[in-house]
Amino acid sequence: MNDLTCVIIGGGHAGLAALKAIKETTGGMANGRRIRFVLFDKLPGHVRKMLLFRPAAGGEEIIVPWTHYDFSEGVKFVQATVTFVDGREKQIRYEGARGNDTSMQYDLLVVAVGSVVRQPNPDQGGISLTDLQTAAVIRERWCANLRRAVGEKNPKERKRLMTIAVAGAGISGIETSSELALEMRKEASSLGLNPSDISVYLVCGQERLFLEGPEKVGRKLDQILSECGVTVIYNRKVMREEAGVVTLNNGDRLSVGLCIWTIGLIPNPALRTMGLPLTPDGQVLVDESYRVQGAPGAYSIGDCARIVDPKTGKAALMRCAELALQDDRLAKIVVADLEGHSAPVHKSAPIDLYCIGLGENRGLVWGRKWGLNMIVTGKPAWKFRKAAWNAGSKLR
Ligand SMILES: Cc1cc2nc3c(=O)[nH]c(=O)nc-3n(C[C@H](O)[C@H](O)[C@H](O)COP(=O)(O)OP(=O)(O)OC[C@H]3O[C@@H](n4cnc5c(N)ncnc54)[C@H](O)[C@@H]3O)c2cc1C
Question: Residue 159: in which H helix or E strand, if any?
């Protein structure tokens, strides 16, 4: 009998997890047929997206080669951009590294093309922390600014070169600003500058941090950030950055060497032309078992899919944490569909859980179950944070 071809589009957190779960659950066989796995990604390895601030702060490598994973054995990896899915003909079209257009038939398809970082208008200045390239540019800029500060005689200009504004105070803004402040202080010391002259402003559009949880978590985060050297500016938005001046929505100005935008995620815009059914916001329309509407054999999970708990009506957020149960459930659904029995349906995670890293040995974990709050800080929270980052990228 012919092999079944299982194509996975996207080797981010969701695609990687789906590949592992389907491979392990099926053992590579279904109804007596061997399953051939093909993973498509436009990048040469798995990018640990949640750690994007790391290369921007300390220059850390966050790309994991596909071959690192045991479960990649026997999987064909194609570095290409998938441009179209023909759900009726069960065929994808993709553009290879040399711009050549090719197509491939599938029996099973997992669409996991994720999200991209939201960007301000180009005339608003600054740099968005969107990918590995912009992370490298951010690091180059602040390092160059500190080197210039060493020889700068004018104290105001020296201070400007040692100042950064981070616009957007969600979890990624909080983590970016704390790691930057700690790395910049370290670098300032090694250059003979006064580390306490480093200023990192985190501009928060709300009256407090972390609206997802109780006020005391926001207060605790503010306290830890201030220990790292980050000053949070509340109830303000960055309007633009121009020639080293950040203008806030109340007209206040900050002199900065760099302005970084961390203003959230949007579904991958490439989906708009991929031929899949979408919500008005641009997420793939799936049923309660992650099946793409009108495309037999196709499923979608992760940031790119609009997944709703049929019992509570709660939609999954664009968070890696949401994936924790989607991958194994997807594997069970695929097996059930292949064998023709009833498949599991999506259920929201039984606990609200957030973990935030605030630099080596600093962190905050908050969870809520049955209305009870649990907060962990310090080293244990940092350990938990690191474990969550590793789990998200299927690393031990
Ligand atoms: C800075 C930052 C910090 C974050 N922090 C947290 C956090 O603390 N906790 C948390 O839960 N979540 C966090 N998130 C969100 C988390 O990263 C996402 O929820 C997660 O990455 C979603 O995984 P995904 O696989 O669905 O999508 P992605 O990670 O976006 O992966 C999509 C993959 O598809 C590939 N791809 C895209 N288009 C194509 C195409 N056309 N053809 C081929 N390949 C394609 C991409 O190259 C990528 O590898 C953070 C995000 C950012 C940016």
Answer: helix 155-161
Cβ atoms of 316 and 329 closer than 8 Å: no
Residues with CB under 6 A from ligand 1: 9-15, 40-43, 47, 49-50, 52-53, 81-82, 112-115, 117, 171-172, 268, 270, 302-304, 318-321
State the Cα–Cα distance between residues 230 and 173, nearest whole angstrom.
11
Confidence of residue 56 (pLDDT cuts 50, 70, 90): very high
> pTM of the entire structure?
0.96
Report the run of H or E that residue 357 belongs to, with start and end.
strand 352-357
Rounded distance, CA 276 to CA 293, Å?
8
What domains can you pick out in the chain, each with its CATH number?
A: 4-50+58-116+266-350 (3.50.50.60), 122-263 (3.50.50.60)
CA angle 323, 348, 369 (to 5 degrees): 110
Residue 109 CA to ligand 1 center (angstroms) comes to 18
Rounded to whole angstroms, the Cα distance separating 297 from 88 reads 10
- Ligand 1 atom nearest residue 46's Cα: 49
Q: What is the pLDDT of residue 178?
A: 98
